[in-house]
Amino acid sequence: MRRRPLLAAVPLVLTLGLAAGCSGSGDATPPKQALETARTTFVDAGTVGFDLKQSALPKGRNGVSAAQGSGVIDKTTPKFQGQVTGVIDGNSAGVEIIAIDTKTWMSFFTKDFNPVDMKDLGAPNPAEFFRTGSGVDQVIAHTTDPVVGERTRSGDTVLQEYTGKLPKADITRLFGLGEGGDTFDVTYAIEPESGELRTVKISGDFYKEAPTTFTLKLKDYGKSVTIDKPAT
């Protein structure tokens, strides 16, 4: 007769336990240590999957609204290959981009790739995100005032968040933007066991017209990736 109340309480206990595991910082790794581990883990991976989204592009602006693909992390020859969605003269379009070091090629409504200057598209060279010493790893290294944030979930994975500030110079170097602000808010989501950086969310005045947020998701650390110069 006493078993029913006990069994009925089990779901409540589990729910409270899960909530506690996601909402509090618990025994989180100190911010500077966690960010340095995330930085070195990113660099050492050599390759990574990449998914970038922008929350809003001001009217009348050319630029990238989304990008998805793979990157090769390297100091001298970083690479990217994937789909880039952007707005050019008010028209939204998706193109295939291959970027190797400072050179970029675009495939638009065809299998052929042609050289393109990403500045003409109002977009950064995506390979630069993967150049060690000035890409994502340098953004992590230049984060100021980092503090422990919340624990969140991405599917079955628990992530520890850390928040901080980024200087305008890093935003300008990586995105070619940042004209509207001096500092930017950043939130990192790190998988505690592996130390892998899974999400970077940067918010602020990328444009003079209005603030926006770029969200970068990383996955497939160390997965085999081949990116070659296209035949032109």
TrEMBL record:
**Record keywords, A-Z:** Cell membrane, Lipoprotein, Membrane, Signal
**In terms of domain of life, where is this protein from?**
Bacteria
- Asked if the Swiss-Prot or TrEMBL record annotates the protein with the keyword Cytoplasm, the reply is no
- One cellular component term from this protein's GO annotations in UniProt: cell envelope
Q: Which Gene3D superfamilies does this one have? A: 2.50.20.20
Pfam families under this entry?
A: LppX_LprAFG
| Compartment annotation | Cell envelope
Signal peptide coordinates: 1-28
Family per similarity comment: Belongs to the LppX/LprAFG lipoprotein family.
* Protein name (Swiss-Prot/TrEMBL): LppX_LprAFG lipoprotein
- Species source reads Janibacter limosus
